[in-house]
# Entry
Amino acid sequence: MKIAVLSGKGGTGKTFVSVNLAVTAKKSMYIDCDVEEPNGHVFLRPQNISEEMISVKKPVFDYEKCIGCRKCVDFCRYGALVFVKNKPKLFPDICHSCGGCELICPVKAVSEKDERIGMIQRGEYKKVSVKTGILDPGVPSGVPLIHACVREEDQDQIMVIDCPPGSACTVIESIEDADFCVIATEPTIFGLHNFKMVQELVMILGKPYGVVINKLESFKNPMDQYCIEKHLPLLAHIPFKEELFQSNAEGLIACEIDDEIAGIFEKMFARIKNEVTT
Amino acid sequence: MKIAIPVNEKGLKAPVSTNFGRATYFLIYDSEKKQETYLENPGRNASGGAGPKAAQVVMDAGADNLITPRLGENAANAFMNTVEIYEAHAGSVEQHIEDLLGGNLNPLNKISKGLHGHM
# Structure
């Protein structure tokens, strides 16, 4: 069972919800797909760490063999190849590693080389396997690394995917195989605005989903009002409490130290399990 | 000599486009034949790689010079040692052609990072 936690806006509590869900599920896997700034490990503090390098393929052109037929340049729909002085010139940051230029070259002048983009770090916290995608600084796209992070052989285990913020390609890659999406949001106009963008994405992909409203001070707020009007599945409210911010700042896991939060996450997890299995 | 200019409307009285990769057309002006040709820019609606796609059109047209107010780093890299790049001002396309032929345009030395989806 794959549960993806996402939000339109950064700082709504994706990592808070993901980490607490993974811990509540007890035996689970937490996957941090926010590869530009993964921070789930700050709370889960994984032990027995191992690292795996992740790379993508980039084409290499043998200009001795190249006959300047231009087939590779015309084939590349990403605009990563430009035909200059009768030879293909590569723009590696635009290349999507599709391998098309190598396939289409009639004289085998194109080969591929591995280019490192980041790594996956694995470790354990109690019964939670912690998997963290870490993108190297300056790498233009986290998508291939996220792809490697969410690809997991044991499909039966409970996986909680902590997504990057927003609704771009990296988020689509993170939730593509998810069985259920949890959208974390804030009870503000800004929160509602960004919630709508992710909700649209989740609905286009046909994913079942539920809403978690974080930092709740009063039920009279634009986000709750919208959920009631549109009959949206509200999974949980998480109260605005100073103690929570304190413990979060100390890197503590709320459901382990706060009974109210533990109860909220137990109910949330039971409901998601129920939605997925029925 | 062939001069390429990004434009959003046809005609010599039109202004130069404020953007290279996302311009609607490229005017290719042949100064010997005094001939205008307008080429569609495939980079205009591209989801990515607009700069190189646009640069390809300009190079395929055999342009020697490009006049633009700004240029992204990928397009600039594509043009390197092939096409001379000059900085556009606020005037019309016609004025720019005249200025270039009279040697009154400055080379563009500011290369932008490009918009890269943040439009």
